[in-house]
Specification:
Helix 5 runs antiparallel to helix 9 and helix 12 packs across helix 14. The N terminus and C terminus are likely disordered. The protein has one domain: MFS general substrate transporter like domains (Growth Hormone, Chain: A, Up-down Bundle). Helix content is 77%, strand content 0%. By secondary structure, it is mainly α.
Length: 421
């Protein structure tokens, strides 16, 4: 019997569905919090710690991504062996301790080291939250739940820059890290008290190099999983590229000042709406139809933006409109691509999530850093980066689907078993 329909398995989770979704979203949102709350303070951090080169301030974001990418691989096998609770509580502890310590960093190098360590802790939430969802749901149901989680998750990009801006108004950048650590502490307590163990005894894998190697081999040799992961990596790279240069674009190019968090929140809010619509449509329309159409739409919007930028300055209204349209498509891409990639790998959900998370974070972080470091005072490099990654992402999807798009009949409602790959 499928695990999402097995009543004995459902009863074992111990908390209501809404709380499970909310807790998983809160855990994943800590990643967004660690990034977005920093954006209003990057300029002051650079000035306070003697960083003159404007693009070098982006390293505060890049160091976090690098730490997370390095730690993603071991968390998955550990979660498949020891369960989900222990590793994620360990990661939360590392995250919040590093956040509090960063508030007292004496120089830029120490701050980057602590951000790297914070990323190591955050990796647990990225891997294990997805594994928990895959433990309980499969196929379109997983896509639906991931959409709901992503909708709640997007509350953080809506609120975090404003929280960071408020901390800057009442104090300085040190308060940003203190507030980040305090929010993480509250979520850690919630997880400690309420988080159930979603990994069942029959799904545990021995923590040996051979078993880990076998799991990684399955992930990398499963065409659909590998290429959908690579496709989502390219789109995450575009998002990371924008995050790296968001403060420079909104404040440096368009001079919006304290209105930066508001404009950032508008786009994040549209992404939340997009995710909610996806959760309502995916069971009827299918993961592939929705995500393939969105991927093509993402490319067309990005190409329009890129061509416009080549002919001169894109006004603020035009930039916000095109960027919001592109990010609206993102809401239909991310959760569906992750669900499709995870669908054949339910029996090694932890290891699969760690490999996919590693590729998405490291690859997306590198792509994002490349886009961010190419900032030249205009939106052209950002638009060109969006357009390029969309084209590459479509190519990866075509490889995964053997050249056929919109094939809804291959979506499965069931969770795949050990032979699902």
């Amino acid at each position: 019997m499928d695990q999402q329909t097995d009543p004995t398995r459902q009863a074992a989770f111990g908390i209501p569905r809404w709380e499970f979704i909310a807790l998983a979203a809160a855990l994943m949102a800590l990643n967004a919090l660690a990034i977005d709350i920093m954006l209003p303070g990057l300029q002051e951090i650079g000035a306070s710690l003697g960083i003159v080169e404007e693009n070098h301030r982006q390293y505060v974001i890049s160091a976090y991504f690098l730490g997370m990418a390095c730690a993603l691989l071991p968390y998955g096998p550990a979660a498949d062996t020891f369960g989900r609770r222990g590793p994620i509580l360990f990661g939360l502890t590392v995250y919040l301790v590093a956040a509090y310590a960063a508030a007292f960093a004496p120089n830029f190098e120490t701050l980057l080291a602590l951000r790297f360590i914070q990323g190591i802790g955050a990796a647990s939430t990225r891997v294990i939250a997805v594994s928990m969802v895959r433990d309980r749901f499969g196929g379109r149901q997983m896509a639906e739940i991931m959409s709901l989680i992503f909708m709640v998750f997007m509350i953080i990009p809506v609120l975090a820059p404003s929280i960071g801006q408020v901390m800057m108004l009442i104090g300085n950048w040190h308060l940003i890290f203190i507030s980040m650590g305090s929010i993480a502490l509250a979520i850690a307590v919630w997880a400690f008290v309420r988080l159930p163990e979603t990994l069942h005894p029959e799904d545990r894998r021995p923590f040996t190099l051979k078993s880990i190697g076998n799991a990684f081999s399955i992930v990398l040799s499963t065409r659909v999983s590998l290429f959908y992961t690579l496709a989502s990596t390219t789109i995450f790279g575009a998002l990371f590229g924008f995050i790296n240069s968001a403060q420079q674009v909104y404040v440096g190019i368009y001079g919006v000042g304290v209105w930066f968090p508001v404009l950032f929140a508008v786009v994040a809010g549209l992404m939340a709406v997009s995710s909610f619509l996806n959760s309502r449509l995916v069971m009827r329309v299918g993961m592939r139809r929705l995500s393939h159409a969105a991927m093509i739409g993402f490319f067309l919007v990005s190409a329009t933006w890129f061509v416009w930028s080549l002919f001169g300055h894109v006004p603020l209204t035009g930039f916000v409109l095109l960027f919001a349209l592109a990010m609206f498509q993102f809401g239909w891409i991310g959760s569906n691509f992750n669900a499709i990639a995870m669908e054949p790998l339910g029996h090694i959900a932890g290891s699969a999530s760690s490999v996919q998370g590693f590729l998405q974070t490291l690859g997306g972080g590198l792509i994002g850093a490349l886009i961010g470091q190419s900032f030249d005072g205009t939106t052209t490099p950002l638009a060109m980066g969006f357009c390029a990654v969309a084209a590459v992402g479509i190519a990866f999807v075509l490889i995964a689907e053997k050249g056929r798009l919109f094939q809804a009949h291959v979506d499965h409602h069931r969770a795949a078993g050990p032979s699902g790959h």
